[in-house]
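#structure-requests
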Amino acid sequence: MKNNNLNLPALMIAAGIILAGYFIGNMHKTGKEFDSYVQVKGLSEREVQADLAVWPINTILSGNDLKILQTTIEKQNLQVYEFFIEQGFTEEELTKGMVNITDINSNIYGNNPGPSGFRYIAKSDFTVRTRDIKKLQKALGESLNLMSKGIVLGSKNEWRPIEYVFTGLNELKPSMIEEATKNARQVAEKFARDSNSKVGPIRVARQGQFSIGDRDQNTPEIKIVRVVSTIDFQLIN
């Protein structure tokens, strides 16, 4: 009995070493399994119609009589406003800007008249903002009729006369993120089959930024919404 009591501490130490070795080995195995993952990207795209259009317009006149010039441009502004009202636009869709008159003789770099020989240049701003895209495009074509009244409409942005905007992104986000995730899982499953593994749960997900661009240069009113998500999937061997 005495010898058995002496061996008890040694047996306990041995059992502890065996258990510690098991847990260390199991942790190492679990860590290796957790390190087995694949990182893939999932894409989602939508083609949508712009739901807001902004047309910043300006009219420019020149002359030597300041009073006549001011009267003429105010008359033109009224004609432009009435034109859009006749096209079916509401007062809320139309914004009258300021009238700026420049005196060429006040130019610090010289006192000579402008190239046209006129002393004063009057510039007036006018903005059309509407969600009725078709109505605006129709008015754009009809605006040529203003030329018969001596009114030439210019755009503040010559490279893009009308700005088309899509404002419904928040409504699309949930379904597009879901689609991007499914697309990423399909890619991960193909990789898993090639490596004799199975796709497990998502390890890390990184949602990419949403981008909205024109479908092409000729149809800026049609937009492409795009998002790319980067997802790490656990692989089960």
